[in-house]
Amino acid sequence: MSTENNTDGNVPASEPSSQAPRRTRLLPLPIGVFLSLFMAATLIPALIFSVILLQRSNQAQQEIVTTLAEATAGSIAETIDRQLMGTVTTLRVLAATPSLGASDLSRFYDGAKVALEGTGAHLIVVDENMNQLLDTRSEYSLPLGRLQDTAAAAWALHTGEPVVSDGVLEANASRWGFNVIQPPLSEEGPRRLLVMTQDAERLSEALASQNLRGGWNAVLVDRNDIVLASSYMSSDIGKPFFLAQDIEPNDTTVRRRVRLEDRTYETITTRSSLTGWEVIVWAPSSIVQAPMTQTLRALAIGGAAIIAIGAILAWALGRQVAKPVRRLAQDARRLGAGEAVEAVDFPVAEIATVSAALAQAAQDRRAAESEIRFLMREVAHRSKNQLTVVSSIAKQTARTARSFAAFQDSFQKRVQGLARSTDLLVAGGVAGVELRELLNAQIEPFRPSDASRLEVNGNHFRLSNQAAQTLGLAIHELATNAAKYGAFAASSGRLVVSWSRSGDRLEMRWREFVPRLRRRAESRGFGTEVIERMLGGTLDAEIERTLHRDGIEYRFRMPLERVEPELSGPAE
Hints:
By secondary structure, the chain is α+β, with helices and mostly antiparallel strands. The chain contains 14 helices and 18 strands. Among the domains are: 81-195, PAS domain (Beta-Lactamase, 2-Layer Sandwich); 204-292, Beta-Lactamase; 401-563, Histidine kinase-like ATPase, C-terminal domain (Heat Shock Protein 90, 2-Layer Sandwich). It has helices spanning 16-19, 31-95, 98-101, 105-115, 150-159, 204-208, 285-288, 290-336, 349-400, 404-428, 435-443, 465-484, 526-538, 560-563; strands at 122-127, 132-135, 163-164, 168-169, 176-182, 192-199, 217-221, 227-230, 253-260, 263-271, 278-284, 433-434, 454-457, 462-463, 494-502, 505-513, 542-548, 551-559. The strands form four sheets. Strands 1, 2, 3, 4, 5 and 6 form a six-stranded antiparallel β-sheet that branches. Helix 10 packs antiparallel against helix 11 (435-443) and helix 10 (404-428) packs antiparallel against helix 12 (465-484). The longest helix has 65 residues, at 31-95. The two termini are 62 Å apart.
C-alpha cells in the first residue's frame, strides 16, 4: 500500500535528491589557461633549477674567496713573522758586537746608529735594572730614564729568549710601536738587553702587499686586541678592534661569522706562533653576498618578464586554437547525427588531423552500416547452413543409433564438436581457421593424460570456414573411434597426426598405433558418411584407409583451392 512494501529497492520519488551522492562538476577552463599552466610548469622548474645552480655556484665561489682570504691571512702572518725574525737576527748580531762586550758603549752607539740608519728602527741598551744606557734616537751623552716596557724586558731576561712586546705608545703619545727585546747572549760580563723599537705603521706594508679585493680588509692586533696595522683605516691603529674574538690556544686559523649591531661580518683569524699576535681578514657579509643577491634579483625580474610574455602569448594562441576547436565540436555533433562531415584545412596541424579523422569517421560509419547489413545477411545465411548441418547430423545419427540413449549421446557429442569448430570459425573470421587449432579442439575431449601418446606435427596452414567445418566433423568422428576402439581405447595406444603441402594438395595422415588390435565388424556409420561423403564430395578429398597389424591409418589428399580461405572483401 505504501513505500514500505516496495520490494525493488528503489528510493521513494521524494528522497533521491537527499540520499544520492552528488558529484562535483569541474568548471571547464579555456585552452589559454591550460597553455599558461603548461608554460608555467615548464618555466618555473627551470627557474628553480637555475636558482639552485646559482646558489651552489655562489657557495662554491664564496668558499673559494674565503679560502683565498684564509690563505691571505696566513701569508700576512708569515710575512710579519719573517720581518720580526729578521729583526731578531739583527739584534743577535748586534748583541755579539765586541764593543758591547767590552762596555765600549760609545763605539757601540756609533756603529748601531749607522747600521739602523734609514730603517725607521731605534736601538735601546738596558741594564738588568731596566735603566736605559743608550738610545739611538738621542745623543749618547744625554741622560736617559728607565725603560717604559719593563714587563716584556723582564720576561726576556727571565726566559733568555727574544721577546716581541705588544703595542706600545711612545713617550710623545703620537705614535704606536712595538719592541723586540734580545736578552744577553752569555752570563759573563754585564747583563745588558738590546731593545729594538719599531713603528707599528711599518707593518701595514705587509697588509698592503696582499692586494685585498671584494670588500675584504685585514688588520693586525696584538695580544690585547689593539690594532697595530690596518688596510681599512690607518686611524684605527692603537684602538681596540671592533670584531676581535677569543680563539682557542691550539687554533691557528679560525673562520667565523660575527653579528654586531644588526650587521653580519665574515672573519678569518690567524694567530702567529712567534708573537701571539692575530691577523684578522674581515668583510661585511652583505658585500660578500652582494653578487649572489644581484644575480637572484636579475633572475627574478627576468623570470617574471618571461612568464608575463608567455602568458600573453598563451592567451593569443588560445584564441587561435579555440575557434577551430568549436568547429570540431560542430562536426562531432553532425557525425553523431549521421550527417556527412567534410575535412577542413585548419592552420594547426593537429586540429586539421582531427578534422580529417572526423571526416574519415563519417565515411567509415557509412561503410560500417553497409557492412553491418551485409553481416546480418551473412549471419542469417550461416545460421541456415548450421541448421542444415545439424539436421543432417540428426538424421544420420538416428539411422545408426540402436536406442534413444545412444542417439542422444552421439548426437550431443557431434553437436558439441560442431560447436567447437564454430567457435574457431568465429574467432578466425575471414582469415580462416588454423589446422593445428582445429585438431587440438576436436581431439581435446578424448586426449589421454599421458602427453606422449599424442603427436601432432605440421607447418602453419589455414583452412577456409567451409573446409574447417567439414574437416572438424571428420576429425571428431576419427577421435571418437580412437577413444572407443583405437589408440585411446588401450592404455598404451598412441596417435600420430601430421600434414604437409604436396604440390597443389594438402596431405593429412591419421595413424593410430594399437598394441593388440581388436578386429570389429565393418559398418557404415555416421563417421564413414562424414569421411567419404562430406570430405570426398565437399572437399574433393582422396581417401586412403589402411588397416595395419598394429592399428589403422587414414590418408587424405585435398586440393588446396578447396581448403584454403579466399581472402576477399565483405561485398564479395
